[in-house]
Amino acid sequence: MGQKINPLGFRLGTTQSHHSLWFAEPKNYSKELQKDEIIRYYIKNYVEKNMTYSVMELIRIEIEKDVDLTTMKIYILPARADVFNKHYQREGKNLQPNLQKKFAYVKKKKGDLKTGKDIYVTPKFNLTLIKIDEPYRHANILAKFLSAQLLARISFRKAMKKAIQLAKQANAKGIRVQIA
């Protein structure tokens, strides 16, 4: 049995970039990585529960950390372009304050230990929602399309040809389809 590697590893630097951009001390690396996963999980759940009218699919979340600011780019596939702007303003404006409340932490200083008061520090988040215009350039969307076609009892050869055709129309750099 051969060694398997994540496909993102092959594509880094050529067609894709890292999903997290930050540096950390070796002893703090695992904590920062866990924070990233918790943030991604929270955003994914929030979008699935609260942004159902404006967002059809969450493509990817990029996290970039500076010393005091965390910048997040959320790539989404809108349900419909005309509905997205109207519903996004109503549904998406609460995401940033909810993130700041969720990830606020308690920080005590030596002078405050006598008074026993907790100091809550809210991290600074900068969120950007980016609409994807060509959905069939992304593997997740093509895989969901293929699974829907197969569940609808369409022959697998037709479904594969249609997926390849959709990827070509979206100017994808390449496609490989394998169904087992």
Automatic annotation (TrEMBL):
<keyword id="KW-0934">Plastid</keyword>
<dbReference type="InterPro" id="IPR009019">
    <property type="entry name" value="KH_sf_prok-type"/>
</dbReference>
<dbReference type="InterPro" id="IPR057258">
    <property type="entry name" value="Ribosomal_uS3"/>
</dbReference>
<keyword id="KW-0150">Chloroplast</keyword>
<comment type="similarity">
    <text>Belongs to the universal ribosomal protein uS3 family.</text>
</comment>
<dbReference type="GO" id="GO:0003735">
    <property type="term" value="F:structural constituent of ribosome"/>
</dbReference>
<dbReference type="GO" id="GO:0022627">
    <property type="term" value="C:cytosolic small ribosomal subunit"/>
</dbReference>
<dbReference type="InterPro" id="IPR015946">
    <property type="entry name" value="KH_dom-like_a/b"/>
</dbReference>
<keyword id="KW-0687">Ribonucleoprotein</keyword>
<keyword id="KW-0689">Ribosomal protein</keyword>
<dbReference type="GO" id="GO:0003723">
    <property type="term" value="F:RNA binding"/>
</dbReference>
<dbReference type="InterPro" id="IPR036419">
    <property type="entry name" value="Ribosomal_S3_C_sf"/>
</dbReference>
<protein>
    <submittedName>
        <fullName>Ribosomal protein S3</fullName>
    </submittedName>
</protein>
